[in-house]
Design a protein that fits this description.
Layout lengths: L4 H20 L3 H18 L2 H17 L3 H21 L4 H24 L2 H21 L4 H20 L3 H21 L4 H20 L3 H21 L4 H16 L1
Protein name: Tetratricopeptide repeat protein
Pfam families: TPR_10, TPR_12
Keywords: Repeat, TPR repeat
């Protein structure tokens, strides 16, 4: 005799709570086993809200266990689900927070794959995040979180494509990132985070032009990056990391 939906929901909640307890104790492998039981019960009960919470935890668990490909699939699916739910209930804070979390997780995972040399998975992570982010920006064009995410991901995607030997596609991503930062800076012209990110992309674009032997383009972008970093450093004279960035950018600018 099959179990009733109510009984299956109780089992799903029990295993989900057990998962959280095991995670707090650092027993992530055991936690994943409990989460799989929770997911099985929730699927049989056809309980969407419980599955939503399970997905939110599963990606992080998989990543903690270095099961990165599986984590990527989970984050992507959870992101798509969150975007769909948010479109149906725009004021729901849980859906918004989960969507933001999934975007950040996808971006971080894309960066991790890039460092590991797993370029196809890195590309997939960036593309998935950007696709959802562009849809969200169409609905919320003034949302700074989505713009910031788009700018950073476009820059990182450009770095990936440049590493993969696709400079023209990389250049396109860098230029899109700069347009995004310009929109952010239009409303917050002195925001140090936006300025720093813009300088980073300008430096990347300068490196690209330099690699192609296009000295004028390289010099122009290095100079713009240098001016931004110099002003930021003047406002934070004790920031040694920023001073080092100024020094390195000046060296590249003068060497062209």
């Amino acid at each position: 005799m099959s179990e009733t939906p109510e009984k299956l929901r109780e089992e799903a909640v029990k295993y989900f709570n057990e998962t959280l307890d095991l995670m707090q104790k650092g027993k992530n492998a055991e936690a994943l086993e409990s989460l799989q039981k929770a997911e099985s019960s929730a699927q049989q009960a056809e309980d969407g809200p419980i599955l939503f919470h399970i997905l939110k935890v599963r990606g992080q668990l998989l990543q903690s266990l270095d099961m990165l490909e599986e984590a990527l699939e989970t984050y992507a699916f959870s992101l798509i689900m969150s975007e769909k739910l948010l479109s149906e209930d725009p004021g729901n804070k849980l859906y918004t927070d989960t969507l933001h979390l999934n975007l950040n997780n996808l971006g971080n995972l894309g960066n991790a794959f890039q460092r590991m040399g797993n370029f196809p998975s890195s590309k997939q992570a960036y593309e998935t995040g950007l696709e959802i982010c562009q849809k969200l920006l169409a609905s919320y064009p003034e949302n700074e979180f989505y713009r910031m995410y788009a700018g950073n991901t476009l820059n990182n995607f450009g770095e990936l494509l440049f590493t993969m030997g696709e400079p023209e596609d990389a250049k396109e991503k860098y230029e899109e990132a700069l347009k995004t930062y310009s929109l952010l800076l239009k409303n917050s012209p002195d925001n140090p985070e936006y300025l720093s990110d813009k300088a980073m992309t300008l430096n990347n674009l300068g490196n690209l032009y330099s690699e192609k032997g296009q000295k004028a383009g390289a010099k122009e972008n290095f100079e713009k990056a240098f001016e931004i970093l110099k002003k930021l450093s003047e406002k934070e004279p004790g920031n040694e990391k920023l001073r080092e960035e100024v020094r390195l950018t000046r060296e590249k600018f003068e060497a062209v």
